[in-house]
């Protein structure tokens, strides 16, 4: 693994909410710390209500993690574009985040330990 990336089990139970809806809760979430960036919580897909998420055409590339696919959250009143991402075929060094989703929390999405 790149020396500046650390992945560990996130302690406790975590929830993600968007547009007033609980998208998921997990006691199996992972915490990814990359350098000096804030830690990011990755939720197992099985703990997320995927019916609220639509895959978008957006993708990005990280030289350390691989290619990320993006998802919008669709609620009754709004669509939150490209607020979730997943490394569906991550590099071997970060393989633990495969089948997990992370969320941007700088808007209408909240990720918190409960």
How many strand elements?
Answer: 10
Range of helix content: under 10%
Which geometry do the CA atoms define?
A: globular
Number of helices: 0
User: How do the SSEs run, as a string of H and E?
Assistant: EEEEEEEEEE
| Helix/strand/pairing category | mainly beta
Domain count: the total is 1
Tell me, what is the CATH class? Mainly Beta
Question: What share of the residues does DSSP label as strand, in percent?
Answer: over 45%
The biggest sheet, with number of strands, parallel, antiparallel or mixed sense and barrel status, is:
7 strands, antiparallel
Q: What is the gyration radius calculated from CA atoms?
A: 13 Å
Strand order of the largest sheet: 1-4-5-9-8-7-6
Give start-end ranges of low-pLDDT stretches.
none
Find the CATH superfamily.
Domain of unknown function (DUF427)
C-alpha end-to-end distance = 30 Å
Give the CATH topology.
Answer: Metal Binding Protein, Guanine Nucleotide Exchange Factor, Chain A
Mean pLDDT: 93
The second-level CATH architecture is Beta Complex
How would you summarize what this structure contains?
The chain has strands spanning 5-9, 14-18, 21-26, 30-34, 40-44, 53-62, 66-74, 79-86, 100-103, 109-113. The chain is an all-beta fold and 114 residues long. The chain is globular.
């Amino acid at each position: 693994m790149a020396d500046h990336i650390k992945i560990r089990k996130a302690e406790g139970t975590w929830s993600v909410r968007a547009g007033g809806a609980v998208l998921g809760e997990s006691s199996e979430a992972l915490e990814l710390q990359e350098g000096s960036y804030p830690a990011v919580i990755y939720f197992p897909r099985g703990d997320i209500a995927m019916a609220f998420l639509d895959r978008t055409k957006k993708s990005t590339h990280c030289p350390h993690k691989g290619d990320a696919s993006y998802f919008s959250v669709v609620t009754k009143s709004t669509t939150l574009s490209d607020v979730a991402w997943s490394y569906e075929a991550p590099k071997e060094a970060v393989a633990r985040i495969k089948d997990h989703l992370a969320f941007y929390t700088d808007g209408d999405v909240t990720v918190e330990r409960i």
